Amino acid sequence: MESATSEKDGAQRQEAASLSPFFVSAGADSRSRNSAGPDDEARTTYGDLLNSKDARRWAVRGAAALLAGLAAGLLTGDWRIGATFAAGTLIALAVHAARRQSEVPRWRKPSMAQRRTEAQLRVMKKVGYRVLHARGVPGGNGQIDHFIVGRRGAFAIDSESWDKRLPLRNKLEKLYHGRFSKNERIDEALSEAREAQRLISEELGREITVRAALAIYGPGMPWDSHNLRGVDVIQGQKVRKWLRSGKSRLTEKEIEEIHKAAEKVLPARY
Q1: Which UniProt keywords apply (predicted)?
Q2: N-term to C-term CA, the chain
């Protein structure tokens, strides 16, 4: 009789506990991973949210913004100034984190130029462009920093950060940064794009075109984009504008096919 009562009480306690968003039993957790449906996978407990890395990051940012707001309020004697300063600090921290975020693996340490181009390409992804970052070119040590395909065609962009104190000029179809020739870098970008074009065309069984570009950050330019030796040299800040200048007209099906082929023949640089 006593064992029956204890079993009944245990069952009631387990049932009550299972209703709590903080309760996850070991057995139930393993079973749910194996048999959960789409609705179950979408459910997230409060404990999951509190333990997530994103939640901890936002907690740290919120605490820093709160401290900054309190300091500003105490110094000025006006709580409204403190609240405004706290909100501004939180926004600044979020923007800084977004700019540093990268799809490129952390150990590869993407350069500032690559991160700035990647930030622009996030906007293009929202309007249907497909993007791959840090893709290797088989048969060599080359890397395409950003491979993009969208309605206006397929593109291979390498991002560079050069000394802003030295002028950038075009002399007799040759690119000079100060007195230093950059033709070798242009030829590398063209070679990578041509190889990607060949590999993707073979994979698809039809010819496609991949436009090559160098996105330059730092020195001023007398142009937004200029084609030299088969490569478009563009201002780093104008990547999105340049992508819209393509003359191709690809369908959604073609975009997806080229993206999948590029993903297959251009290995990720892990």
Answers
A1: Membrane, Transmembrane, Transmembrane helix
A2: 63
Closest CA to 51 of 83, 11, 24, 12: 24
Residue 177: closest CA among 190, 157, 163 = 163
Angle, in degrees to the nearest 10, between helices 112-125 and 79-100: 100
Q: Write out pLDDT tens, residues 246-268.
A: 788 899 999 999 999 999 999 98
Cite the DSSP H helix spans in 205-248: 239-243
- The three-class DSSP label of residue 207 is coil
**Environment class of 232 (CB within 10 Å of its CB; exposed 0-12, middle 13-18, buried 19+):** buried
Q: Which residue has the tokens 């007195």?
A: 179
Q: Where are the alpha helices (DSSP H) in 77-226?
A: 79-100, 112-125, 183-204
pLDDT tens digit sequence for 87-109? 887 787 666 555 555 444 443 45
